[in-house]
Amino acid sequence: MPAPDAKRGAIRLDQIGKTFGETRALSGISLAAAPGSFLVLLGPSGCGKSTLLRVIAGLEAPTEGRLFLDGRDVTALPPAARGIAMVFQSYALFPHLNVEENIVFGLKARHVPRPERAERLARAAEMMGLTQLLRRRPGQLSGGQQQRVALARAVVSQAPVCLMDEPLSNLDAKLRAEMRRELRALQQRLGLTMVYVTHDQAEAMSMADQVVLMRDGHVEQDGTPAEIYARPATTFAASFIGTPPMSLLRLTAGPGGAAVLGAPDHAVAPPEAAGALLGIRPEEVVPTDGPGLPARVTSAEFLGGETILNCHIGSGEEVLQARVPGHHAMAAGTPLRLRLPPAAHLFDPATGRRLPDPAPGAARAPITADTGGEHP
Ligand code: ATP
Prior knowledge:
The protein is α+β, with helices and mostly antiparallel strands and 376 residues long.
C-alpha cells in the first residue's frame, strides 16, 4: 500500500499484449506514467490506442502482461475496483437524466452519502462552469457543455487516474482549442494522472507531458513532446509529428559528400551518409540568395503568418517542404536555392530506424557548400 501522503496515480504496464481471435491488437507494450502527469496515446486509426485504454480501465482483459496502479498489480481487478474515471468520445451521458443527475450518477451507485454528493457536485459544477445548467437535459446543451458534464462526472469521482478517449473530437476547431487548455489546466489543478487517446498530433504535442506514439499495436516512441520532435526514433515518428511533417530525402554519393538524389553536386551530409534518408524539419529550411540546394517550387500555401513552399529538389526526384515566415506568392516552377540545417536526422531506409548522429564537424561543413552545380 502507498503511504497515506504519497501521490497517487502511478501507472505501469509490463509487456501488455492483446489478441482478438486472429487479430493482434497490442504487443509488448511497456510504459510508465508518473503520478499527476498527462500521458497521450497517439497514433493512426487502428494502431490500438482505444484497446490499450480499455485494458487500463479494466474493460478489456489483456492476453499477456501485467498492469500496476501505484505499485499494485490490478491486472485481474474489475473496472470499479481500480479507482479510475473514464471519459469517452461520445460523452456517454444519460439523455433522460438532467445535468446534476448525470454528474452524481456514479456517486449514487457507490452509495456516497447525500451531503458529500452535494458538496462534490457543487465544487465540480463550479469548476466546470455548469452551476446554471444543472436542471437541463443533455439534449438542451451544446457540444462543449456536454463535454463539461462528462468531465464533471469524472472530477466528482475523485479518482486519481482519468482516462479519455478522443474526448474533443466532436467539437469544432475553436472550441476544441479552448477545451484543450481547460482540460490541461484542470488536470494540473487536480493533480490527476491522465491517459488521453488521440490521433491528432497537434493535440498531443500541446497537452502532453509524455507522448506514447503507437503503430500497429506496438510503441514506436515514448518521450516528451520536445524529445520526439527533436529526435524522432523512426521515419514513422518523423512523418507523424509536425505540421507539415519532416521531409525525408534520399541521399546518394556525390563528389563532395552525400547529396540529395537529383542534386549530386551539392553535398548536404558526410560521405558515409550516402544511401541514408535525411530528415529536414520545414522550419529549418531557409530560401537564400547565396549558395544552397537548387530547387523548384511546385506550390505555395499561404497560411497567414507563414507560407509553406512545396519544392522539388534538383532534377526533381525528391520533395522538400519549407515553412517560411510571411507571404510568398511563388508560381509553380519558380527556381530557388535553399539553405539546409546541419544533417541532424539520418534514417536507415530499410528499417526506418534513426541512424547514429553524424560527427558534428563532418555534418556541419558541407551543408551549404555549392560545388558548382547549375544555378537554377
Ligand atoms: P481508432 O483511432 O480508429 O479508434 P485505435 O488506434 O483506437 O483506432 P483500436 O480500436 O484499439 O485502434 O483497434 C486496434 C485493432 O484491434 C484494430 O485492428 C481493430 O480492428 C481491432 N479490434 C479492436 N476491438 C476489437 C474487437 N472487439 N474485436 C475484434 N477486433 C478488435
